[in-house]
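Data deposition worksheet. Section B asks for the primary sequence of the deposited chain exactly as it was used as input, without tags or linkers unless they were present during the calculation. Section C holds the resulting structure in token form. Section D is free text for depositor observations; keep each observation to a single sentence. Incomplete worksheets are returned to the depositor.
Section A, Depositor: J.P.
Section B:
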Amino acid sequence: MARLATPLTDSCIRQAQAAAKPYKLADGGGMYLLLKPDGSRYWRLDYRFAGKRKTLALGVYPEVSLDEARKQRSAAKSLLADGLDPAALRKSRKAELSPAPGSDDAHLAHALDIIGEGVWDWDLRSGLVRHNVQWGRLMGLSGPQTQHTWQQAMACLHPQDRDPVMAALQVCLDGEAAFEHEHRVQHADGSMIWVQNHGEVVARAADGKPLRMVGGLREVTKQKRTELVMRRRNLLLQTVAAVNEMLMAELPEPELMSRICDELVRENLFRMAWIGLVAEDGVTVRPVAEAGFVRDYLAQADIRCDDSPQGQGPTGTAIRTDATVINNDAETSQQFAPWRERAQIEGYRSSAATPLRVHGRVVGALNVYAPEPQAFGPDKQMLLEKLATDLGMAMGHRAALAALRESEERFRLLLDASPEAIFGVDTRGICTFVNPACLDMLGYTREEMLGESMHHLIHHTYPDGRPYPKEACHVCFATQQGKPTHVDSEVHWRKDGSSFPVEYWSHPLYRNGERVGAVVNFVDISARKRMEQALRDSEERYRLISSVATDLLYSCVQDEDGYFTIDWATALVDRIFGYSLDEILEKRCWRCYVHPDDQPAFDRNITHLAAGQRSECELRILAKDGSTRYIRAYSRVVAADEGKHRLYGACQDITDRKRAEEALRESEARFRTMAEQSADWIWSIDVQGRHIYSNHRGMANLGYSIEEFFAMDYTGLVHPDDRALLHTTFEQAVSARQGWHNVVLRWRHRNGSYLWFESGAAPMFNDAGQLIGFQGMDRDITERMQAEERIAFLAHHDALTGLPNRVLLRDRFAHALVMAERSRSRVAMLYLDLDNFKVVNDTLGHTAGDELLLEVVTRLSRCTRDSDTISRQGGDEFILLLNEIPDLETVERIANDILANLSEPVEINGHALNASCSIGVAVYPEDGNDFDRLLQKADTAMYNAKDAGRNTYRFFDNRMNQQAHEHLLLQNRLNQALFRFEFHLHYQPQLEVDSGRIIGVEALLRWHNSELGDVVPARFIPVAEDCGLIVPIGAWVLEEACRQAQAWRKAGWPDMTMSVNLSALQFRRAGLIETVAKVLRMSGLPPHLLELELTESILLQDVENNLDTVRQLKALGVRLSIDDFGTGYSSLSYLKRFAVDRLKIDRSFVRDISTDPDDAAIVRAVIQLARSLRLGIIAEGVETQEQLAFLQEEGCREVQGFLFSRPLAPEGLEDFLRERKRRSTRTEHV
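Section C:
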């Protein structure tokens, strides 16, 4: 065994890794820690007494710490100084627990008291339990008495633990297993401790009845409390994860809240939980979900959130103050006094209430109750506040979605009700939506239009019949160039092939800042076109009076009654009145055609006009066709002969103007409606920068009313960093008399946060061409900016952990290099890879793997400085960049801290996981000054650490490069070895001890390469396993061994079992059963003569699949043996389940059986185990007669080793068989 003579420390012990063979960590004075290949660790003390070398077991690490082991060593040394043998005294102690003062046993009792071990001896015949003082103290039995009845001992146990302890004792008394149990002890003062109790039956009657049982007791309260804390923390994490999954699911809100309450009372995290929302009156709190209540508690409770007495409880106070309220003890809290009686009935002592916020407003509270006082520490309070925050965000998100759906429904209704034809197209001109008015005008159905090219459907030809190219279409300007268009000189084509003139408007459509199409609305202007043509015809007919500004001229003469009577008029009278000139003259006055409501104005301005007066008024005319026309009447009265006056008048038809004004008012109203309904902020400012218009939606985006916004200096709402841009943009726009586009500014919301807006504006001019202001629109692009920031973050960080990725790490390295050169310090790069992380993903799932990675990041952060960098490279690999390192000892300290932190178990989903890691270290400037070179060297060092047993670290040195090159060289040569017939087998005989008969051989692989020579298996087998070549190599070994075994049978040699080793990779690879069956069939070897040797580690991974493979192999008739038994995780259960035929004792135990009591004990136990299970047993590595004698004495009947023969080539084995046969024949003759 190898010895490491360095003084032991806790850190040194934690870093030590199990190796293929046991080795010792010495602490001095003969004490050492024995590390077994299976990872177990035992304290041992070697000493000499009476000229003999002896060993004393001091306990198992970590149950016995380094300090405790040293105390035991001191106690043992004291005994040796007094001439006493500690091991002998320990044995006698088990037989006698009441030593006389000053006796040898008294020293041992004193040593046991020092280490805190309680020892007991139960006489089952008398029922008395004899014990040392420490046992009495642990059991709560004060006083010097060292003997009690077993009933008194059982009375000290916690009531809930008595039955389990009795059951475990009964199993031991029945001889099925040793007694070992952890339970609680209830002391007389009410305190409770946890103890680890163990023992065994040491005396039985002839009929097997137990007579005496001895054992020991140790306190483990601290460890149990640690486990309880970890379990509670794990439960909190599970609750957070479960609630987050609920929030992500599309559950109805009542079901969501109910399931959250159920989750909070799961596994007794809390006693009761309920969620209450503030009712519409703003005072009453209405329960909406509950869990854990056994009585109708909430239905009877009057819960309020105002200043009334009913509002002073935790729930009302939390809602009113917008803060978490903790009631630590309902029995003592004065504030909780009104509810104390109710708390006693419901069985809770403490409670907590956390406000629920939706968009910054408190809408209710999350309430939980616990049966014990002081139940709400920082961790639980943090959990409740996080759950309340997440639930509030989910409620807000759901409300926003509902509002969006409502808005979309309103838009759809407006679209369907619009009298104008409206349709939408994507960027290719394909129809995406259409309203009923459009369908009516064009004669198509909705199905016939959706998904079709609108240009080819309705816009394919000019009015004169020429083809209308799609690329010239004005609608395409909106979809392709983002330019709004207005056209009134084109036609649309109906389904029936007819066309009609239209006036249409197209506006580009954007989504998330990206142009996705256009919206087009149009009207049929056929009537207007006809009117325009009629007007042109009229103007042509009456061009002779074009100098006259009015449409109708007339004159009246005053009759004898004083009324004006028409005596002349132009022929245009019929266009205004709809009546012919003769009909007008017949009536003599046109007052009768005036709208009744306007007749008083007619009388004032025309009928009663005095001579010399002028008048001007607007009147409505009731035309002959029933329509209403608008005119502007100009009148003047002049004096005529004979005292009669004459009136001259002109009537201007202003119907079109009136209708245009009405259309303008409707357009302005439509624009205002659209502006108010727009999700964007639409505004107008004058040339001084004062806002003169803003839609409500824009103000709502910022949280202000229009009145508040207009009353304040809006520049103060702009982010300080953007104010210069705002002023510059406005000044340049005024100076250039033009607008601006895509100016991004941040505006402060009422709640203090800043929103991003993309601003665009166009100038406004009056009729004189003077700039009077700007009309603009700002679009909220906060989500887009946040998304861009997130994308920029993810470009340099890991998505899961948020750690820097390799791109950012490379930049950090360059900066660290500059700092190191300046300060003449070092930079260390640590390449860290988690051990066995793939097992977590494969067994518990990737979610558990992600949780483990996040916990690793947390622990790594505790081991590094803020100036250092932790980077995730993907999977389970991390790189730590340590800046300005003064010396290598600092790197070692940090690496040790990391190993220690990660060695602590991690609780995930009820599983305690180990997050150990292997670390490779490369240091600037010793190992280079280039990022990639240091990274490669750290990676090489990391793999060297894994080869050293994992859970350790290694600094890079040049030998690692040499090892890597050798590994690559061997891999390249192995790739060709099978094809070049470089492999051959040697066979080591296996003998029956009593008869000396050869019962079998073990096939051992050998490799001779023309360049490398003979390569030992320990050198090339690990390489073959790493690169997967072990599978084809193993198949060749199986085939060649079976062929050779059958060849020997055919040559007349006695049947011999052929033992062939299977690697773990070969065993788990698909097709093993077919390969074995094929080899047996082709070779002709009987299946029972083939024995496949498996290691324990193969069977303990993926047990169910392995069990199926073993059953299929057994069905073929082959034998199975466990190779190197005892060096792995030996288990009786797998020996029974896997039905193996033989155990092979590893050579590491056989080598020292004559000198090492531990190895001798292990070999003896394995032989007894095989005999008890009726399994074959064979020992390998037998090299001396002493070893053979020991094995014979203990009952091992089969052996192999150099004592009999080295592994031999087939010819050499045949010679060996002949020689054995010759000796056997000679012996028989003698």
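Section D:
The CA atoms of residues 660 and 666 lie 10 Å apart.
DSSP finds 43 helices and 47 strands in the chain.
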